[in-house]
Design brief:
Helix content is 40%, strand content 20%. It is α/β, with parallel strands linked by helices. It folds into 2 domains: 291 residues, Mur-like, catalytic domain (UDP-N-acetylmuramoyl-L-alanine:D-glutamate ligase), CATH 3.40.1190.10; 130 residues, Protein-Tyrosine Phosphatase, Chain A (Alpha-Beta Complex).
């Protein structure tokens, strides 16, 4: 048994050594031992390549504005590990993490001696979340974010009220497949029998795969630009405004505080699901939709840490994320000198990502950080064709010095892996908040 939070955390993170082991059999075994907590939860399941966390946050904020107690399970964390299991946006306590770890560890030990093998870090955390939400009173609904793919993801043992697939991109291709269609097939694995699926997928081949799975499972489908439409989009200083129309609702001038046109699609999915929940035992008013959307905040997604000096962090960890980041920077800050600091995992399509960043930046610095799959700064440097590029050893000292010397027409953008963002944000925020 663990006696401290740090011991529990070290044990959980130590399971990273097991890597990724797709499949549901270990989860099903643990759930059976725990009394099937996944069957005691009202849930919404959110998958997709990008935008999962933002969509979870929009929906949570809407339901919370209505007065519901909402659990969320998300990954990775940005500011502290505990935020992966949260209630009404507040991470559970260190004491609760310790208690949950002591519940799951004996099961993990038992699995270690079986042919199934020990559970991965993500499986352990997912099991902790199911147990916590099923045994915590007054939780009205839980929103689960898929970790990887969908079909064999640890979260895919639930029978949700509704499922969401945000979009499809070429990420984790070594595991999920090399084409949009192959990846869509894995994501579509979260579609359940007679359970509505809401999606903003636009790639024709990927959408066709999702449509076929929905038909196979008799799941009503709600598609962007078909069953619902976004119109009247405009960018504002600290967010976006858009209108949304479907068969059952028409909402004008919805405002969100998250930056990026792509966030209007994530917000629209959340609104559609909130509206659907009106037919599933919940009550969600237009007022709660509007206030929830405006108040929704998700760290590390085009987050402005400081206006003067202008410092932005963005967890653009794949091609789709970089495309969205470049679009926003070129639209909002085309008259500024843009200084990029970039770190990434080695298993991403780094050449394409760096090519896009080269095209938007006046200077680009490549850094490495302490993570098993992190690319070295020198590896990233060699992929860049920028005439003003550098590889940096001490990223924290470099970033803080860059901010300190920043001119009035300059912008510093720290981007790339969400794991890197989770390390960088606390250090940068502490520096910026100094008197």
């Amino acid at each position: 048994m663990f006696t401290t939070y740090q011991e529990a955390l070290d044990w959980i993170h130590g399971r990273l050594r097991l890597g990724i082991k797709p499949g549901l059999i270990r989860m099903e075994w643990m759930m059976d031992k725990l009394g099937s907590p996944e069957k005691k939860i009202k849930a919404v399941h959110v998958g997709g390549t990008n935008g999962k966390g933002s969509t979870v946050t929009f929906l949570r904020s809407i339901l919370q504005a209505e007065g519901y107690k909402v659990g969320t399970f998300t990954s990775p964390y940005i500011e502290q590990f505990n935020e992966r299991i949260s209630v009404n946006g507040k991470p559970i306590s260190d004491a609760e993490i310790l208690k949950l770890t002591n519940v799951i560890k004996p099961l993990a030990d038992e699995l270690e001696g079986m042919e199934l093998g020990g559970p991965t870090e993500f499986e352990v955390i997912t099991a902790m979340a199911f147990y916590y939400f099923a045994n915590t009173s007054n939780i009205d609904i839980v929103i689960f974010e898929v970790g990887l793919g969908g079909r064999f993801d640890s979260t895919n043992i639930i029978q949700p009220l509704a499922s969401i697939i945000t979009n499809i991109g070429l990420d984790h291709t070594a595991i999920l497949g090399d084409t949009y269609e192959e990846i869509a097939f894995e994501k579509a694995g979260i579609i359940k029998e007679n359970t509505p699926i809401f999606t903003a997928v636009k790639h024709p081949g990927a959408l066709k795969v999702i449509e076929e799975m929905a038909e196979k499972r008799s799941a009503p489908i709600y598609r962007l630009n078909q069953e619902f439409q976004i119109s009247g989009y405009k960018s504002i200083a600290r967010g976006e405004v858009f209108s949304l129309k479907s068969k059952s609702l028409s909402l004008e001038e919805l405002e969100i505080s998250m930056i990026g046109q792509h966030q209007t699609e994530n917000a629209a999915l959340a609104v559609l699901v909130a509206d659907f929940l009106n037919h599933a035992g919940f009550q969600v008013t237009e007022q709660s939709i509007r206030s929830g959307l405006k108040e929704a905040y998700w760290p590390g997604r085009f987050e402005i840490l400081s206006e003067n000096p202008l410092v932005i962090i963005d967890g653009a960890h794949n091609q789709e994320g970089i495309t969205a980041l470049v679009h926003e920077l070129s639209t909002r800050y085309k008259d500024r000198n843009i200084h990029i600091v970039f770190a990434a995992l080695r298993d991403k399509k780094l050449d394409e990502m760096i090519k896009m960043l080269d095209g938007i930046s006046n200077q680009i610095a490549f850094v490495s950080f302490d993570f098993p799959r992190a690319a070295k700064a020198e590896e990233l440097f060699t992929l860049s064709s920028s005439v003003n590029k550098l590889a940096v050893d001490d990223w924290s000292a470099y970033i803080l010095d860059k901010i300190k010397c920043q001119g009035p027409n300059e912008i510093v953008v720290i981007t790339g892996s969400l794991y890197f963002i989770s390390e960088a944000k606390p250090i940068i925020s502490k520096y910026l908040n100094k008197p």
